[in-house]
Amino acid sequence: MAANKRKRKIVTPKTAPYFFIAPAVLFFLVFTLWPVIQSLLLSFQTSTGGQSEFAGFDNYIRLFNDGLFYTALFNTFTILIIQVPIMLSIAVVLAVLMNSALLKMRGFFRVAFFMPAITALVAYAIVFMIMLDENFGLVNYALSLVGIDPVAWLNDPFWAKVSLIIAITWRWTGYNMVIFLAGLQNISNDLYEAASIDGAGKIRQFFSITLPQLKPIFLFTAVLSTIGTLQLFDEPFILTDGGPNNSTLTISLYLYLNGFRYFDFNYASAIAYVLVIIIALFSYVQMKVVGDDDD
Amino acid sequence: MKIWKMTLTGALSIGLLAACGGGNDDADTNEGGGNNADGNAENSEAEASEVSGEITVWGWNVAAASMELAVEQFQEEYPDVDVVVEDIGREDLYDRLTVGLASGGSGLPDVTMIETDRLDNYFAEFPDGFVNLSEYGFDEYEGEFPEAKAEAMKDADGNFLAAPWDIGPAGVFYHVPHFEEAGVDPDSIETWDDYIEAGEQIQEATGAQMAPIDISSDDALFRMMMNQLGTYYFDEDGNIDIDSDEAQQALAKIQEMREADLIANVDGWDGTVTATINHQVATVPFGVWYAGTIMDQAPEQEGEWDVFKLPAFDGDGNRDANLGGSDLSVLSHTENPDAAYAFVEYFTTDVDAQMVALEEYGLFPSLTAAYDEPFFEEEDEFFNNSPIWSTFAEVAEGTLPANYTSDYARALRYSADAQAEALLSGGEVQDALGEAAGRIENETGRERAN
């Protein structure tokens, strides 16, 4: 009798975990997996006047012949290649400084540097827009005090890219710093003591102990930042709208324009899938190159 | 495993898109929604009191506010209809409208505001999304609006899918003290060449430039000039016309101004407004709605502003053009099309409702009957005691139609790119516009007129 009862029970210690994760899985299936599959299907269709029809690889063929897509790729990679190394270098230096026993008010500085990462995106972008205004902006005013001519921060193809890089760096450096800081806590003090006894200075210690020990953290932050930059959307959307003359058009922004401005969801889906493939390839390569002895 | 996670993370970003596009197939089954008006059409003249229910209306900013003001009066005629006006930001409204239409009508209001130049884009992509107002008898009002405006409301078959609301007759707002200081008589500015000459004089005397343009992202002046010259991005057959002789003439004129250092390159809307009220520029060629912005942002400059019509390209050329304007559409998934139509009909064709929107919020009616109101003869104290509203009414009635087409959004963007090329990078006008035309051709498959 007792054995029977136990058999009929649906929730047992063995099945319980599945019930706990069921809502999450359900949401994942409905709101993530289903749309992902749907957009894959969409990317193989074209639509005119609300009627969709199967179009094979037409969208992808069009994409590979689309000059603007290459412009977007070029812009995105230019920003990626310049911005990520700069940001990670600053982040690691900041992290080491924050970790220093000599620094007072550490908590304050940590919070101050982390703040940008949690600032409301639109608010920060608009503040940047006002500061970088060519005619009335604070930045150009400051430059004018030291005798430098006003710079068209958002209206010049070159400076617009620079502005984006500055904005993204401002926003994400603190975030990466915190990750590095966590990594630094894991480096044993013994290493530094031993190095001191051997007569290595602080700078030598930084390059010979700190950096090598942080390698896995570098991999992690580099991959995250790369993905983030490849998907770069908010800053060009608000600050420059991809201009002037498409010099800050990124892949994600081009995707948005096609989907939401031109109503070409099929083409936008194709762009999205190409972006996913690029991100997967990049992440794979980074892990192979940097993390060869990590796995 | 890690790779798989990364891929998924990336894939998340496209999830949203699918949600929007996936509904295309479902939309077909909803077709009845747009056409079930047949049965109701006869009812449109029925007793107002029979119409009842609650409708939701989307708009933004002062437009939403002015619809709100009209509700009370509307309810005197239709006491059983509750109208809820929701003020949603402009870009937000479009994004939600697009997503809602693409997913077959979920989460949408009964009535929404849409800007005139975006209508074709929506009509072409979501032909079943909008109630055919002609079936409710809106055709009878056709003659009460300027032809250029009424034409823009119709789909390819000549049915009204939107009701005309406000328009943006264009003019040149100018700062009177600057003109006086430089000794320039605004009445003497009849052509764009006069305008450039005056600009040089003003700059010499006051240091102010002539016009603010957000060169890399807004081509408003270029569009006004094209409209003056009877052309636009596309010709009346929908062929690409952005590189026509007239368009080249227009962009070349702006380039000439830029080379004479008369154009202030500003950042976005805020930059335009700042340049205006700080007197970095002495004039602003814009749509009538800019009057409200100046009054709102610089109340202390009362009496210092005035308006003249856009200069012509030659002696007796056309000086009328339009920039902007919006309309009301009934969305076809509405459960209460009669009430929704009743509100749209009332709001867009009632002179009182339109005059309140104009006097309170500066939204210029396209309903020509309104132009007979005494308000239009009044001299506006803020604008140098000039009868600027009658000037704008004249412009409205003389404006030539423009064919926006379903590919307007693309053309707008590539036009701004061409402008940036010609004004910022010193490119040839012909090449810049030719490149824009080529891109539009590649992406839309439309024929080129040139």
From TrEMBL, chain A:
The keyword Transmembrane helix applies. It comes from the Bacteria. Residues 73-286 form the ABC transmembrane type-1 domain. Keywords: Cell membrane, Membrane, Transmembrane, Transmembrane helix, Transport. It is found in: Cell membrane. Pfam families: BPD_transp_1. It is a multi-pass membrane protein. The chain crosses the membrane at residues 16-37, 68-96, 108-132, 158-182, 265-285. Belongs to the binding-protein-dependent transport system permease family. This is Carbohydrate ABC transporter permease.
Automatic annotation (TrEMBL), chain B:
Keywords: Signal. Gene3D superfamilies: Periplasmic binding protein-like II (3.40.190.10). Coiled coil: none annotated. It holds the Pfam family SBP_bac_1. Residues 28-48 are annotated as: Disordered. Residues 1-18 form the signal peptide. It comes from the Bacteria. InterPro entries: Bact_solute-bd_prot1, SBP. PANTHER family: ARABINOSE-BINDING PROTEIN-RELATED, SUGAR BINDING SECRETED PROTEIN. This is Extracellular solute-binding protein. It comes from Alkalicoccus luteus.
